[in-house]
Amino acid sequence: MEKLVSLCKRRGFLFQSSEIYGGINGFWDYGPLGVELKRNVKEAWWRDMVSGHDDISTMPGAPQPYEMTGLDCTIIMHPQVWKCSGHYDLFHDYMVDCRQSKKRYRHDQVVGRWVEAKGQKIFATAGSDSDQPETDIERNALKFFGLRTKQAEQLSWDGAMVSLTTVDDFAQVLGPDAKELGTLTEPREYNLMFKTTVGALGGEENSAYLRPETAQGIFVNFKNVVDSSRVRIPFGIAQVGKSFRNEITPRNFTFRSREFEQMEIEFFCHPDSSADWYTYWRNRRFQWYLDMGLAGDKLRLREHHSDELSHYSTGTADIEYAFPFLPTGEYGELEGIAHRGDFDLRSHMEGKLDPNSNPLTLELDANGKPKHRGSGKDLTYRDDLTNERFTPHVVEPSAGADRATLAFLCEAYTEDEAPDENGKLQSRLVMKLHPRIAPIKAAVFPLVKKDGMPEMSQDIYRALKKKFNVFYDEKGAVGRRYRRQDEAGTPFCITVDGQSITDGTVTIRHRDTLEQWRVKQDDVVAEIDKLISE
Q: Helix or strand or coil: residue 76?
């Protein structure tokens, strides 16, 4: 992972935000290659899910044909949106502070083990930023008991590593960066929404929030979409956009950030068919990642247990990837597919629903009034063919554009050997990105800067540039130029040599197989187009 992070900075995939001022934790900037990669991920998702969707045919595994459309909603919305959705009251994590180190931790991300030595039993911990929590827990325990590494056998461990949430008495807890016991505070709520002010007055009545998700903008526009277009249920509304969560401990490169981008679909369907649509979207979204190049042995589809489900959900599955920064055998979430029932539309019609009620009813305040009133607008749907009126159920595939980009980078990072210009095997660092998402689709090289090769290369470059992001390079030995493009993830390199001048053909080199073949100059654009589309 350290090698990948180094490559991302060196080659311009990712930079720490505000780095010249020391950076700001939880925020990342995409460099020249990174912005192209992330944009290609979003465009591939939008093309496959929305603009390229066949509205009149039944997709494999789908119960029936369906339509797809899109939205682009504002980052700041009416504060009542977040009160009715539950974010205002429920969107929080629990945090603990260390009185000694002055550091703050998310309660459920601190892990530890019970250990006994010298007649005393404690719960030694490691923080969420630890790459080797087991090792750090042992080191902290040794330090507390005044033991050396060679005396580790004096530590008597009781049980496996568990979360701090399993511990009730913090008096026996050794904080991740503490020297004494009992320095951690009791857990307390921490709202994850960024608060801001709208207007010039700046009072509490002008408070608003940066959206923590893109989904609510779709729900509050449901009626607008139905009334302004010809969509009929079942149909989906897609959106790609920024979201903001004030994470207590952002970590693991771009995996958990405070500013990130989501690719979400809210799929509206009849309650009777919603279970079938949930299965369809779960399977289709999993297959998309496989098609885009993630390895099947590192990708899994995990159905949530009943105790993991949100209060409104009747089914949720996570698509997870074995990121290299996680311990062996652990996976990180790429995308969640949730069966949300009618929770969202009802919330924005009626008001905040009580998470402890089943079936869901309005949450009331101390006076028996709705705690947070809804819009009062009718968000039900009338089927013009059957005249049936109902509140649609929703299936939500919610993907992270940044997490997907990170997963593609992790999967692509490869070290192998390839022959140099003299035929001698040399170590090679190559980013094996799928051609559809590769930042640069092709690079064009003249073998030497003479004999008409640069002119012919530039003509090919200009022809390709009209359709693809391509790169022209005439500096250095051709072997070094290949290596530079391999690190950038460029799938195809086109070389103009002496034979090109005589017969009008050029060499195309495949990044992954190192196979080379000749193509006529006039066929280069069509050839690259075909290769990218395969």
A: strand
Q: Using CA atoms, how far apart are residues 30 and 81, in angstroms rounded to an integer?
A: 31
Axis crossing angle, helix 32-46 with helix 401-412, rounded to the nearest 10? 110
DSSP 158: E
pLDDT digits (tens, 9 = 90+) for 402-416: 999 999 999 999 998
Pairing of strands 492-496, 442-446: parallel
Residues in the chain: 534
User: CB neighbours of 409 closer than 8 A, spacing ≥ 6?
Assistant: 4, 8, 13, 37, 431, 433
Instruction: Detail the DSSP E strand segments found in 130-225.
Output: 156-163, 173-174, 188-191, 195-197, 207-209
Helix, strand, coil tally for the chain in percent (to 5)? 35, 30, 35
Computed over every residue of the chain, the mean pLDDT equals: 93
pLDDT recorded at residue 311: 59
Q: What is the pTM of this model?
A: 0.87
Phi-psi region of 146 (alpha: psi -120 to 50; beta: other; left: phi over 0): left
End-to-end CA distance of the chain: 30
CA distances from 86 to 47, 297, 359, 392, 400 (A): 32, 37, 17, 19, 21
**SS3 state at 453:** helix
